[in-house]
User: Fold SID1 transmembrane family member 1 from Caenorhabditis elegans.
Amino acid sequence: MKKKVKKIPPAIRVSVDSLAATIKYPFTMTVVRGKTVHNVALPRIQSHQGKEFQYWFASDTLCDEDRSAEQLSQPVQISIASSLPSLFNLRVKSVNNFIIGNKTFKSKGSPSEPRYYMYTFPDDVDKVDIRVTSPSEICGKIVARRVNCPLFDASGLLEQSETFFYQSFTTFAGFSLKKSVIGRQFHLAFTVHPDETLCGTPDNFFDIPNNPARIKLAVISVTPVKDNLWLPLFPILLYSISMSTVIMLTYLKYKWLDRRENNEPNILDGTDSEGNVLVDKIWLFDKPSMIVSHKEYQKLKLVKDSKYFNFLFFQIFGSILPSLTTLFDKQKTSNNLNFCYLNFLCSLEFLCFKSFNSMTSASSLAVIGVLNLIIVFREKIFSFKIPRLPTTHGLQQRDAPKVVCFLGLVSMGILWTITNNCPHRTTIHLDMYTSSWIFYAAFMWIYSKRHGVRKWQQFFIIAVSSIYGCLTLAENMFNVNSVSRWVVKILFSLTAISSTVYFCYQYFYERPSGLQGNQWITPPFESPQLYLSDANGIYNPLRSKVVLIVLLICLSVVCAILPLLTSESASNSAIICLGRGQIGIYLVYYAVQKCRFERQSFTLFYKICCTLIFIVFMLMECLNRYLANFMLTYNVLLTPAKSRQLNMDCVLPGIDLNDLRHYSCAVDCFLFICLMDFIDSNIKDVPKKHIFVF
Assistant:
């Protein structure tokens, strides 16, 4: 008869509890197994985030430095010591799933009952994916550490070593490990935090009161994977197709602009009577003959577009350089997998980048900006010159506002490319600063089409975007208390309302450059100038400007109040809502005004092109907002553990929803640029004196 071979336990777990133990009269236990010695003391005291927690039960797995068969077959010897007679419960059991295989397994732990297991890389495996899921939102931590004993100290807290990686989690944790980094063997530890400080308040508030012992169930898997050398080609292929399409469309637009250079006929061609716009709603104005036109706004000397590259100074020192400095901080925290807010289910590691797919898609915005800058400065780049002569027809071309907007796109693209390698809330103020820059630059681009370019516009963009960046920095980087947070919110509200009111004042009361002081309405808080003039000689702005002013102020008031009504920080969302909302309102208002006063000049080609561009632009904007608000794959405003709950699988090989959002944003910006270049092509032959300013 064949003798049955006794199986050697891979690890031993010892559990003990004693309610009679106190700090003054502790209960101690010493466990000896061959060369392994482990001590346990009750009550078990743990320090966490400046607080102390006591537990009258403990469960530890012995850490055997020597994994030989002789050591593992040694008997377990336990000695108990107590200053007072004590009643205790003791249990010793074998951990049969201690050696991690290719199968998923379950583990249950609590703050005083940490769990750990061991994985050995097969010879043909160089990389593994670690995935941990849990039905409970209790805050836990997963740690991968090169095999080295002891793993836990007497209080049940993890002993750190030179090579380790950790990640806090609620319902999901995941990361990859390479054999060349962690070693041939590593311990995988699963612990539970004493409170929710690091993970944030659970969505399920009943999860904690119904579980005072904080027992958490985790499903753990370690899966060998092979680096797919072809996988990085999918993001590159999608990027190449997208950018090739943009380059082709940009080239066609470039040829179209060359045919319509300056959007005006030659000064020697035509007369003021050509191409008049018929105003069929003349009853809207008291004095239609004295409504100020585009002619009175175009008397100043053209602003040199190259001067607007001075804005690049603020972009470099305001966003790009600070984002580069964060790369050095991230290198110091490479073992802290909480630092980078990545989509760990679809982050493509390639070369030295942690998220190659996100960096590739993020750079598309910079490409849009560079291509359009080439169009603006094509005369200097390709060494040819088309004369620009101010004439009496059409809108005077002003490329300076474009330059500011395109520089913002380039800066945002570079910023996104850098930060998407390791997103973190320490750079969110840079994102808000550059986003505000783009919003207000686009807003001023619309404004300047009829009103021209003024110096105050430059300072307005710089001032408002800088203030928003500083407020976001104070709100999200520093641990401000409730009083300081309210101060930040109030400052944001004042800035949002005051900046909008200032713009509206300039929009309605700014005197056109072609008029004298006695020919224009008197602004509030100013006394009328003493000139002998006929009252009928005073020009007036369009009355419909009041509609835009009311809409803009109402939007700013709503966005200013929202952060004050919520306890959580909402200034970031309010800034985005305010910027996008103002552009949307002005753009729709601009289109409506053109339909009111210029529809007689609309050709069939113009109607089709503008309608298609506008519809596709709005659809892409809605898609972008949907992806940003409802389909986020991470969120730097949340805790790292909460952010990982948003992680999603790839929608395409090496492409996630965040990448699609980057591409949709780039397409959205490109369509906006096309719309702005094309929207006033209908009045090329219309005299300036018949072009209303709205």
Remarks:
- Confidence is low (pLDDT under 50) at residues 262-288, 531-535.
